[in-house]
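Table S5 (text form). Sequence records supplied for joint modeling of the two-component complex.
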Amino acid sequence: MLPSRVFLRAAIEGLIPAHPSETPEQRQRALDYSAGFVRDQVRAMPLVLQLLLACGVSAFLVLTWCRWLRGFTALGADTRRAWMYAWAYGRVPLARAMFRPVRSLAALAYFECVG
Amino acid sequence: MKTDVLVIGSGAGGTVTALTLAEGGREVVVLEEGARYSTADYGRTPTMAMGRMFRARGMNPIMGSVPVAYAEGCCVGGSTEINSGFWSRPPADLLAHWKYEFNLADASESDLIEHYGWAERELGVGLFGRPWPPSTAVFDRGLQAMGWKGGEQPRAAPGCSNTNTCAQGCPTAAKQGMSVQLLPRAERAGARVLAGYRVERLLRAGARIRGVRARILDGEDAGRRVEIAAEHVFVCCGPTETPALLRRSGITHAVGNTLGLHPYLKVVARFPEIIDADKSVMPLIQVKEFSPDVTMGGAYFTPGHAAVMLNENPMEEARDREVRRHMAAYYVGVRGTGRGSVRPSWIGDGLPRIHYWMSREDVTNLSRGFAQMSRLLLAAGAEVVYPASFGLPPVRSEADARAWLERDLPWTDLALQTVHLFSSCPIGERPERCVADSFGRVRGVTGLSINDASMLPDSPGVNPQATVMAMARRNALEFLRRAARVVVAP
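The corresponding structure-token record, covering 605 residues in total, follows.
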């Protein structure tokens, strides 16, 4: 039911783009750590919220297939970023609400790692 | 197992109860759901602290008209281990209002002053006592420029050495979480503290509470259930777990129907000078000009927390470490005139369902507060103020700030937080709305009291820890007095 770690890592990669001040090793470590952290945090949420998030992520993945004829993790970095932003910061309040915990938790863990 | 008095929870209310009763000669057992940590375990990263010391890893948000992120401690010492140690007595007129509104006996300022004084002496409450860090100094500069009421807020953190790890447990033990001195003192007076015990329900014999059933969470006996008999049970599990436990145990009248909270909106300000807010304690100034409806103060700042706040409106410059050195975070808090509810989980995840319905007044106060906070920060020299709320433009001028005096922030995307919940089981002498009498004795049963933030009749408008400790001590002493009267009665 929970979003997979692979999906979360790809989502975080889209939400937090690479920055020149970070080395590739730093980024990989931060992405791994934040994906694990987000997954642990999601697992601690009330079951109802976990279920809602799972439904939302499923809808997101289905629409990704319909739109791009590929899985989310197979999208190119720029496409993935634009698609994530369209959901997490777009015009649909429900989509924004769904990704808010993911993007906030990811930001906390990622920037804790890279400083 | 059998004991004289069982205290459930080791936060501000539970520890004061245990200490007072143990020093009063009673046999006391304290059950705490969370683990016990030493100062060597404290001061780790925020994500590690969330995983170990926060209830549900900080992931049980308050749902309702606007979701509110909520964090409380779940460890020996409770939320006092992860708060910032700020200390506030409520205004006298608020206590008078409680007396009038709830017919609350013996809780006027003159009744409680002895207990506030006791807590302040025990915790070494005082001012910082050294030159302020830059995040405080610039905030004070703004306060002086505006000519508003306010100043440095006392803290229960004598000898604070600026580790900026209040929310992860203070590694120097300067901040007086309950585990630092008061709970060990209760243990020296004979109290037993059992960590890793989750109380599932209260056990009844007719109208008398005769003990609890608890599940052991850690160690060799993990998963085993035990029954602990007690002559009297004090429920001090906090504003969400106390009503959930009472309701799970069949005590429902007025329980969990009147939850109150202080909603907070965070802002990040960028100054021309270097602030290095992540290298010092959070800003120590509180603005009282608009209190009790609106208060303003300093917020916790680490690279991760800054990213979360700035992430509501993604900005490239937030990635730049050099730019972040010029930033500090502050909050606008409102009294909270909405109402919420707490109900036990019905699907087995063990997390209470918490709801809160913001009032229009709350949103208006937040909007005005945001406007005034922005004006203050601009007057302090800030170049820009970023609201931690989706879709809101940065404030760069007085005109930008004043715009929020005229209109309300949009409800839909407000990113609010709170660490102050209360009033889910109000005490007083109005049985139709009060779960317990003026001293926390739960109505309809015997042998049961509540003694934590859930008992506050209404929003204190200020940090509730002082009031929780003062009233918990008052109630525990009243319990001892009554017990003594029963013993000596012919």
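Note: Chain A has a mean pLDDT of 94.
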